[in-house]
From TrEMBL:
Residues 229-248 are annotated as: Disordered. This is 1-acyl-sn-glycerol-3-phosphate acyltransferase. Residues 34-155 form the Phospholipid/glycerol acyltransferase domain. It comes from Streptomyces virginiae (Streptomyces cinnamonensis). Signal peptide: none annotated. It comes from the Bacteria.
Amino acid sequence: MIYGAMKFSIGGSLKLAFRPWVEGIENVPAEGPAILASNHLSFSDSLFLPAVLDRKVTFIAKAEYFTSPGVKGRLTAAFFKGVGQLPVDRSGARGAGEAAIRSGIEVIERGELFGIYPEGTRSPDGRLYRGKPGGLARVALATGAPVIPVAMINTEKIQPPGKVIPKLMRPGIRIGKPLDFSRYHGMDNDRFILRSVTDEVMYEIMKLSGQEYVDIYATAAKRQIADAEKAAKDAEKAAKADRTGKSE
């Protein structure tokens, strides 16, 4: 009930304002379970994809979105519940991963659509990063559900990280053909199989999105960018101090 109302109000408004274009929507089954594996460019990815589909898509969201105090916290929690997000405690890396996997399996067992971002976090620069071999592959192999690769296009230009008010422009969504990994069913503890499944999905996302692929994790790339920015600031401070010292 809440989801239907939120989808009608938010989804309808998004489609009217941004007019997203979609290719391959026929690849999403009208019924039955499936995993939608998408690249991740913007916070708005979790809004645009469900907006163009007739079916509910359940994504994972960090638990803090559901537990923040005050009126703003309650509104935020109601919003995320309304758009089909599930809370997962990310305080411990391994615990968070296991919780996400359990949640994904539960969604699939209900015969619904489970949305996941294999990169694990938003791309820091618009490129496609190495997929993490845990959640996506383990849910797929444990359930036998088909994996549908999805490419979000230009959403990072609409709402870059840190930007609250989005820019009005058309995002795109390309949906690929379902991938069948039933040949690996029950092998969800084999790390080589998990890596192979994840890489195959990421390759399909790369073809759909046209992004440059980078064979490191996005979290590592973010650390490199942060370290480079810090080094640049430290160098600038040192140069300024050196100039000040010489002028005296």
